[in-house]
Amino acid sequence: MIKPFDKPITAARPALPSLEEFRIGLEGIWDRGWLTNNGPLVEQFRDKLTEFCGTKNLSLFVNGTIALQIALQGMGITGDVITTPYTFVATTHVLFWNKLRPVFVDIEPEYYSLDPAQVEAAITPWTSAILAVHVYGQPCRLKELEQIARKHGLKLLYDAAHAFGVKVDGTSIAQFGDLSMFSFHATKVFHSIEGGMLTFRDPKYLPMFDYLKNFGFKNETEVVLPGTNGKMNEFQALMGLLLLKPLDKMIEQRKAINVRYRERLASIPGIRLVAQPADTVHYNYAYMPVEVDERELGWTRDELYTKLREYNVLARRYFYPLVPDFACYRGLVPSAELPVARRVASRILTLPLYSDLAIDDVDRICDIIAHIASGSGRGTAAVTHSKNAELELVHKVAQS
Ligand SMILES: *Cc1c(COP(=O)(O)O)cnc(C)c1O
Q1: Of 72, 183, 323, best ligand 1 pocket probe by most atoms within 8 Å of the beta carbon
Q2: Which residues contact 197 (CB under 8 A, 6 or more apart)?
Q3: What is the pLDDT of residues 101-153, one digit of tens each?
Q4: Buried b or exposed e, range 126-137, using 16+ CB within 10 angstroms
């Protein structure tokens, strides 16, 4: 009999440094009385990230959404932007905030990123850029997208919110395309409570982004652009600095969890594992997505999702629904299109994964899934639970 977890196991959980280290950092902030507006910790964080990403063209923001919104504005992107329906809503929202039209094209079934052939087929004279997403931290089809962008004179932007720490052939993922946005939100592999970063090829954008995130101020008396407020603060930078040190270890822990899930889930019919990263990729193990094959498993994805909740396993349907299916975007694309994205969105389930998730708990989650898959999980956990209690009572009575 498999018992539900006593406490909910969430899909993600923020990494935290030692409270003592954070307290020491706070004392510094208190001493200086400098809380925001490019303080010394933000400067230090920027230097460390510059080293980490191998690019000087880097700017920090209060969060990833504002970072990408400012990127589109600062790069002067206009008209139509080809993008993916299979992402977090913020990817599309930033287009709307810049009065750009999202053109959704389908994804490839292996790593769920934009399908280059579909991208090329969707290009029109109004297309100005491609906005692709490294879904779950797996790199997009980098070479193909780069070729298409160059051939048609389009800007190539990556929403790399999931991909911090990823390398391709030893090169940081931050160095691909014209620009990449990273999110340092608490639930990502690496975080600064909230936070965002842009890395980009052309240094001319640096002053532009700096103005835009600080109300358009060039100096004390000159406002050169109608900017917004997108500055990172000292508390965020402190968290980021403290979590950058254990990053490699945290990714190793994530990898061990991923390996265990893969070993344990491989034999369960109806649970399809996502393709392994290519040999050239140093992956960050950001998420643990699986596809549920309803016919093989005997349960729909939503049934499995609900069933797992009864065991206190809070898996997520990430990404579902597709962005074009949200009320605010409905009608932009005919619903019959995007077959791959639709299929994936209807089958995807992301299982709990965070660096300090115990391997024993991974085993228990897999036992629960196997138990549900075997069909013996039909009927709710609670009911099975009380049946078990009944049986125990019968035993006790029989023994006495
Ligand atoms: C988290 C996330 C964002 C938004 O980043 P924030 O830092 O939370 O604003 C954008 N795109 C994707 C794919 C994300 O997962």
Answers
A1: 183
A2: 49, 58, 59, 60, 61, 64, 67, 181, 182, 184
A3: 999 999 999 999 999 999 999 999 999 999 999 999 999 999 999 999 999 99
A4: ebbbbbbbbbbb
Of 76, 68, 194, 80, the C-alpha closest to 133 is 68
Residue 386's pLDDT band, with cuts at 50, 70 and 90, is very low
CATH no. for 247-385 = 3.90.1150.10
Query: Is the model's pLDDT at 397 over the cut of 70?
Result: no
β-pairing verdict for 348-351 and 167-168: unpaired
Nearest atom within ligand 1 for CA of residue 196: 7
Nearest CA to ligand 1 atom 7: 64
- One DSSP character per residue, 222-258 reads -B-S---B----HHHHHHHHHHHTTHHHHHHHHHHHH
For residue 162, the ligand 1 atom closest to its alpha carbon is 15
Tell the CATH topology of 19-244: Aspartate Aminotransferase; domain 2 (3.40.640)
pTM equals 0.93
- Distance between CA 77 and CA 188 in Å, rounded? 28
Question: Which backbone phi and psi does 99 adopt, to 5 degrees?
Answer: 55, 35
Q: Where in the chain is the domain with CATH 3.90.1150.10?
A: 247-385
CA atoms within 13 A on the CB side of 136: 25
Residue with the smallest CA separation from ligand 1 atom 10 is: 90
Tens digits of per-residue pLDDT, 258-312?
999 999 999 999 999 999 999 999 999 999 999 999 999 999 999 999 999 999 9
